[in-house]
Amino acid sequence: TTKFASAVEIPVTFVEKNVKLRGKLHHITEKGLEVEHIPISVPFVTSILRRWQSEGLLLIRLAGVDLAPSGVAWLKQELKPKQMIWFQLLGREDLGLECLVLVNKGRFLSVCLNEEILRRGLGRTARIEGLHHDSRLYWKLHKRLLRAELKALKKSKGIWKEESYSESIRDRIRDNKFVQTLKQFVSWLRSSLSR
């Protein structure tokens, strides 16, 4: 029933046990998601506790994901302000929380944003901060994230999109020194003839 206004307020045991919390999304930044924690509500008790609860936003980072700029743009497009999300605590770094972030899509379906970002090729897998490398949970999650990234790689999505043959030829011609010198000569010739 306690409302957490900063990462430091969350008990260490919650992080160690990988507790799931819910919150209301406020902002999406390059650093992560700024979320207002929504505690479990108990009738009567919640209304009394609300008076003493502090205000503040938790900084939540997508664990195991190195976001590309297109990933941040996709999150801003996909997630709505005040949207409810669930986040599973995996670690705490400085003032941010490393989490698996779940978003409800319909009544019985939820999507893990960490995997969805990688599946769309909008980021790369990274080390999951806060979890020990020898833990089963670390390797289970890391394997899930790598599978999602591999799907994007196989389908050439997002950052894994390969240039077409004609695009690569065009870029090579454009960047060729001889072609650049020839363009400069033609522009010089045009300017001198127009005088």
TrEMBL record:
<keyword id="KW-0007">Acetylation</keyword>
<dbReference type="InterPro" id="IPR042421">
    <property type="entry name" value="C3orf33-like"/>
</dbReference>
<keyword id="KW-0812">Transmembrane</keyword>
<keyword id="KW-0472">Membrane</keyword>
<dbReference type="GO" id="GO:0005615">
    <property type="term" value="C:extracellular space"/>
</dbReference>
<dbReference type="GO" id="GO:0016020">
    <property type="term" value="C:membrane"/>
</dbReference>
<keyword id="KW-1133">Transmembrane helix</keyword>
<protein>
    <submittedName>
        <fullName>CC033 protein</fullName>
    </submittedName>
</protein>
<dbReference type="InterPro" id="IPR035437">
    <property type="entry name" value="SNase_OB-fold_sf"/>
</dbReference>
